Amino acid sequence: MLKRSTQPKRLWRSAPLKPAYDAVVIGGGLHGLAAAYFLASRHGMQDVAVIEKRYIGYGGAGRNTAIVRANQRTSENVPLYKEALDMWPRLTRELDFNLMFYNCGNLNLAHSEAALKAMRLQTATAQFHGVDSRLLTPAECKALIPALDITDRPKYPIFGGMFHPPGGIVRHDAVVWGLAKGASARGVHIHQDTAVTGIEVQRGKVAAVQTSRGRIATPRVLNAAGAYAAALADHLLDIRLPISVLTIQAMVTQPLKPLLDHVISSGGYHIYANQTLKGEIATGAHMDRWPNYTTGTSAYYIKHQAEALTDLLPCLQGVKFMRTWAGLADMTPDMAPIMSGNDPVQGYYQDCGWGYFGFKSCAAAGKYMAQYMTTGTCPEILAPFDPGRFAAHRLMGETAALVNYSADN
Amino acid sequence: MALNLNCPICGPRSGYEFRFGGEDKGPRPAEEGATTALWLAYAHLNRNVAGVQREWWCHKDGCGTWFRVCRDTVTNCEVPTVDTL
């Protein structure tokens, strides 16, 4: 029998909770870890703590379907997502950790003339910003994915597709581990099992963060608590945000031989799917129709996914789902995120409202939030994401059609 | 996750028959003298309580009635009305 002679090598060190830090990041998810990593690596901040109520990667970081892409809809959003997408290979080298970025390309299907028209605008926006995105005919879609049914048989026949070659898949757990490793190596303290219980404000400035393990004096704090960020902001600072939190479900099939070489998605069917390196078809669904924090899965969506997947890819009939899970999406009315700082409390920063786009954006958001927290000045690329846009009623239009999750629309 | 709601007209029905109508934020602000901040709060801002909250629902695929219930957002279960919320 093999005997392990030494303890397994940890990727990051555990550290004692100090009574003071230069910056405290609430949330050991990808946005929090990325911000901490960039604070330490780019801005030389020596004393940074990440406090995480459960364990790093517990939330959206480990529950998303690992899809990355940069073909968002609006000119404010595309550059941020493009930078995030371009960062994967560089981060892989920089962190010396294989993030398993696989740029297999994303094919988004249109099932109506109206959807094609929206895609025409979306590809034009992408191309204007130097993002490779193009329209395909149904025959070209089938050339990419031969298993696709492009006949008139499906409930929603395929009218065309939008192909985005530089997008693809990144192993989400590897990003958690890689960022934690990189941050820890640069002196960041990662405190798991540590819940924030209060933010002390003195004369309009952040003075300390209270946690389940004691008080931490700090001049700046980042709320990167993902789907819990909005409730925390309300609970701790009485800051209400235009966010609704909804459970979003995903599942994987049994492993199959290679048949899906690209990420495929369809707004009409409300599905997105890719084949993992293990051969499983990993697929995600639409959000629950009402806000909740359950992260529960339901027969309703398992049935829906099975019907939608087999309608588009009939060869999947009879294939079994092996596993199902859910995460939380914090949706804003315009499906664009909220990033802001020093308003109304000096030293309080927030990075939330990412909905189901938090994974693909984490590297760029972390980089620029770190810059924001160091300089105190909002980087130009983040300026459009100030929540002031909602008071001015200048919503961004990342959503093509009205969604059904709140009374707002 | 499964949700059943008690429609005041139709009784207990599957949650999928209903449309969520937002957190209960009290009456619509009077247009006279209403500020941007007031409208913003009414139209967009949410408390996002992880726990019991009072909220609006419409029996969309049934009788069409709008009504308020208290629901625990962590368990997705309707709970008896709490007056203090």
From TrEMBL, chain A:
<dbReference type="InterPro" id="IPR036188">
    <property type="entry name" value="FAD/NAD-bd_sf"/>
</dbReference>
<keyword id="KW-0560">Oxidoreductase</keyword>
<feature type="domain" description="FAD dependent oxidoreductase">
    <location>
        <begin position="22"/>
        <end position="371"/>
    </location>
</feature>
<protein>
    <submittedName>
        <fullName>FAD-binding oxidoreductase</fullName>
    </submittedName>
</protein>
<dbReference type="GO" id="GO:0005737">
    <property type="term" value="C:cytoplasm"/>
</dbReference>
<dbReference type="GO" id="GO:0016491">
    <property type="term" value="F:oxidoreductase activity"/>
</dbReference>
<dbReference type="Pfam" id="PF01266">
    <property type="entry name" value="DAO"/>
</dbReference>
<dbReference type="InterPro" id="IPR006076">
    <property type="entry name" value="FAD-dep_OxRdtase"/>
</dbReference>
UniProtKB/TrEMBL annotation, chain B:
<dbReference type="GO" id="GO:0046653">
    <property type="term" value="P:tetrahydrofolate metabolic process"/>
</dbReference>
<dbReference type="Pfam" id="PF04267">
    <property type="entry name" value="SoxD"/>
</dbReference>
<dbReference type="InterPro" id="IPR006279">
    <property type="entry name" value="SoxD"/>
</dbReference>
<dbReference type="InterPro" id="IPR038561">
    <property type="entry name" value="SoxD_sf"/>
</dbReference>
<protein>
    <submittedName>
        <fullName>Sarcosine oxidase subunit delta</fullName>
    </submittedName>
</protein>
<dbReference type="GO" id="GO:0008115">
    <property type="term" value="F:sarcosine oxidase activity"/>
</dbReference>
